[in-house]
UniProtKB/TrEMBL annotation:
Pfam families: Esterase
Protein name: Esterase
Family, similarity comment: Belongs to the esterase D family.
Signal peptide boundaries: 1-25
UniProtKB keywords: Hydrolase, Signal
PANTHER family named in the record: SIDEROPHORE TRIACETYLFUSARININE C ESTERASE (PTHR40841), SIDEROPHORE-DEGRADING ESTERASE (EUROFUNG) (PTHR40841:SF2)
InterPro entries: AB_hydrolase_fold, Esterase-like, Siderophore_Hydrolase_D
Lineage: Bacteria, Pseudomonadati, Pseudomonadota, Alphaproteobacteria, Caulobacterales
GO terms assigned for molecular function: hydrolase activity, acting on ester bonds
Length: 281
């Protein structure tokens, strides 16, 4: 250490003593929780216990007095798809590219039990002995979740159902068998392979029973191989052959995406399609 530096340090120490004691305690940053939405343990007579329901409300909901459409999200648990789908809704609100929408995430517990239709395939039954109770989940949505949401939040009666993979299969099955449940359906890479593709192969029979009530179906799939594509082709052929004036449907292939990468971009496009901001008058 040079003589000049010693003199400077000594002078600084002397000044500090003259000024009195220095407080050395460091102030801790203030910690505030980030609140994304509200989680409810919804009592369910159908399931005999409580089920996780997560709700995201648009910014300004409390003060607006407005009513809103509702998107019901399958696999909507906090550790599932709730955060990234509600984030898409938030982005659309912030930048003004989509209408405000309430996102209701319905958490899954046993996905093959809750989202898959019954199968007679012995291999699937042996591997997934609890499978095939999708009708029970539809009852839960119809009789318990929707009444809870409509009774607690300001909704405008416009509803949509979204899901990916097995949840996408559930979306397609619900559209085909109980189309009156929702106004719009979004199925991302639906697992049409389940039960040997029977749902896709029987889709024409279900469509013959449809009414002409207005509804929308959005289908999309990544590069998942020729067998998966063939089943999607079977489904879309049925939709073309049994065209109903009230039903608007589209299939958007995404050949550059895989089953693991498709969801976020597909969900963003679905939001822009379903909740487009009306053009300025």
């Amino acid at each position: 250490m040079t003589g000049l530096r010693r003199l400077m340090l000594a002078a600084g120490f002397a000044l500090s003593l003259a000024a009195g004691p220095i407080a050395h305690a460091q102030t801790e940053p203030v910690e505030t929780p980030i609140v994304i939405g509200q989680s409810y343990a919804l009592p369910s007579a159908i399931y005999g216990g409580t089920r996780e329901i997560n709700v995201w409300l648009p910014p300004g909901y409390a003060e607006s007095g407005q009513t809103y459409p509702v998107l019901y999200l399958l696999d909507g648990g906090q550790q599932q798809d709730f955060h990234h789908i509600s984030g898409i809704a938030q982005l659309g609100t912030i930048v003004g590219t989509t209408r405000d929408v309430i996102v209701v995430g319905v958490g899954s517990v046993d996905r093959r039990n809750e989202l898959a239709l019954p199968t007679e395939n012995p291999e699937l039954i042996a591997r997934y002995p609890t499978q095939g109770q999708s009708s029970r989940m539809r009852d839960f949505l119809w009789k318990e979740v929707e009444p809870f949401v409509e009774g607690r939040f300001r909704t405008n009666g416009e509803t949509a159902l979204m899901g990916e993979s097995l949840a996408g299969l559930f979306v397609v099955e619900t559209f085909l068998k109980e189309p009156q449940m929702f106004d719009a359906y979004v199925a991302v890479s639906p697992s049409l392979w389940w039960d040997g593709g029977q749902l896709a192969r029987q889709s024409g029979a279900h469509l013959r029973d449809h009414s002409n009530d207005p509804r929308t179906l959005i289908l999309t799939m990544g590069d998942e191989g020729p067998e998966a594509q063939a089943l999607m082709d079977t489904l879309t052929a049925s939709l073309r052959d049994h065209a109903l004036p009230g039903v608007t449907w589209e299939f958007q292939p995404r050949p550059t995406e895989t089953h693991a990468t498709i969801y976020h971009g597909a969900a963003l496009d679905a939001f822009r399609r379903l909740y487009a901001v009306p053009p300025a008058q």
